[in-house]
Every structure is written in structure tokens, then in C-alpha cells.
Amino acid sequence: MGDTPHQSDPLRRARLRWRARRGLLENDLIFERFFSRYEHDLSDADVAALTRLLELSDNDLMDLLLARKEPEGELASPDVIRVLGMLRSA
After folding, report:
1. Within its chain, how far is the Cα of 15 from the centroid?
2. Least packed by Cβ within 10 Å: which of 2, 16, 37, 78?
């Protein structure tokens, strides 16, 4: 997070939190812990990276969250990798 600008729009954060509700309970639990810990510290870059992760299917997302797979191709950006690390440690 460092010196990156804070995502201060509460409506945008609320939409992101709602979108993070998934069909798999395991994913829901990880995202709930993540938002409890990081929601108010997220930068615009963090929100963009989370949005990219949330575009994945539930199973693909779970594989990344549980470190069964690592991001590949365009998804392997520094922002996505950083946010994925935050999700895994939450």
C-alpha cells in the first residue's frame, strides 16, 4: 500500500465488497477476512486488481487464493500479485 492513493469512495468499496460475494463458501470466508482487515486501506490500484480477480470463475479464483495456481499472462501484473498476497495472508 505504501504511498499509493487511498480509495476513499465508500460506495465504490461497498460495490466491490458486494461483488466479492461468491458461490463458494471458501472464497467468501477469505474475502470477508480480507475486507475486515484491509477495506479502508485499499488504493485505487488495489481496487482495480481486485476487480480483475473477481472477473475469474469461482474455481479459478479459489485455485489462486489457495495458491494451487499462480497468476499467468495479463493477470500476472504486480498489482494483482500484491493483492493476491494480501488475500492469501488475510
Report:
1. 13
2. 2
Let me know: does 17 contact 39? Beta carbons within 8 Å.
Answer: yes
What total number of domains does the chain contain? 1
Calculate the alpha carbon distances from 18 to 1, 54, 67, 86 in Å: 22, 11, 24, 18
| Residue given cell 488504493 in the structure block | 43
List beta partners, residue 43: 6
Q: Is residue 53 part of a domain?
A: yes
**Position 8 pLDDT exceeds 70:** no
32-55 pLDDT per residue, tens: 999 999 988 888 899 899 999 999
Q: pLDDT value at position 7? A: 54
CATH for 32? 1.10.150.250
